Amino acid sequence: MEQKKGTIALAAGAAALTLLAATLMIGMAMVTALVGGALPGGGCGGDGGLGGGSQAIGGAEWNAEQTENAATIVNQVVQRGLPKRAAVIAISTTIVESQLRNVGYGDRDSLGLYQQRPSQGWGTPAQILNPVGATNVFLDRLLELPGWATLPPGEAAQGVQRSAFPDKYGPQEGPAAALVDQFWVGPDNPVPAPASPAAPEVSSVASVFACPDQGGAGVPLAPSNIDPKKLPPGFTPPADPAQRAAVTYALAQLGKPYVWGAKGPDSFDCSGLMLAAWAAAGVPVPAGTVNQKTAGTPATIAQVAPGDLVFIPGSLGSPTNPRHVGMYVGNGLVVNAYDSSTGVVLQPLSDWADKVVAVRHIAGPVGRPAAAAR
């Protein structure tokens, strides 16, 4: 009887310890969500991207597309030698205007992260739908405001945007500041003198990005009669205007370097090339390979159309979490920013065929069975 009591006591103790451990784990998860950390499925090993994937920052939850766009904005501010204050104003603006998403709709002809209007001199749709270009235009106009860095919360954003709802920007500076603190690297920069131009923009570098480069194509450049950095003789672009614009842009980048996080015009990573190419057609796609995996509508490799995004695991991904994307351009060819040592190249789609895990159709007519590259 005493032995049974001891066994019962031990079992009860073990159960209590298990409950305590579970409670502690839940508590730690709650603390992580409050102070910042990867959400389920997030982080560099999850939905990844420049911003570290889905995570809680400053008491708010952000998905992988939102953190990628925030990291891109901070990177542009850093590259231009501007202070943190510029990044806070820019991000607070995009939280209000688009919830940090690269959207293709808005009031009248408003587009993109900042809801900029081509008809009001903000640039072409291609510029506005590229987060790098849109951020640079926003920063250019911000720097034209006298005393922009010391204006009360929301006033500098309103001075740039001229919104019908001026009171919305100020309350978002707190969440924006938390995002900036998450991605900023190094000391703050001084406010440039009013008469001094901003530091010249340089190619994006992965100095403020939360995740390291997530790998290249991982598909060998097999010997073929296709020059990987030249358009084949007699290549015919697609007839559909949107598909033709995207394909023509992508092919014009052949030979340019691969830089992690870059979205053009001088360098690209794999998803940055896809974003810039479709922006050239006036069609928004989200930033980041993992986010682009759900863009448009699903398609199959058997009926891939020009402009479709083709996903493979890449050197550091998996079939369920692909890390590399290219664009089918027709004639049995795919263009992609291959890796940091190779740059933007053409490959036969047949070299990818047994590794393709997803195809997404973005715009234009759906495809017919793909022809083999000659």
From TrEMBL:
Please name one Pfam family that this protein belongs to.
NLPC_P60
Family statement:
Belongs to the peptidase C40 family.
Do you know which PROSITE patterns this protein is assigned to? Answer: NLPC_P60
Named from the GO MF annotations, one term is: cysteine-type peptidase activity
| Record's protein name | Cell wall-associated NlpC family hydrolase
- Species classification: Bacteria, Bacillati, Actinomycetota, Actinomycetes, Pseudonocardiales
* Keyword terms, alphabetized: Hydrolase, Protease, Thiol protease
User: What highest taxon heads this organism's lineage?
Assistant: Bacteria
What InterPro entries does the annotation carry? Answer: NLP_P60_dom, Papain-like_cys_pep_sf, PG_Endopeptidase_C40
The processes (GO biological process) annotated in the record are: proteolysis
Extract the PANTHER family matched here.
NLP_P60 DOMAIN-CONTAINING PROTEIN-RELATED, PEPTIDOGLYCAN DL-ENDOPEPTIDASE CWLO
Q: Which residues form the NlpC/P60 domain?
A: 240-363
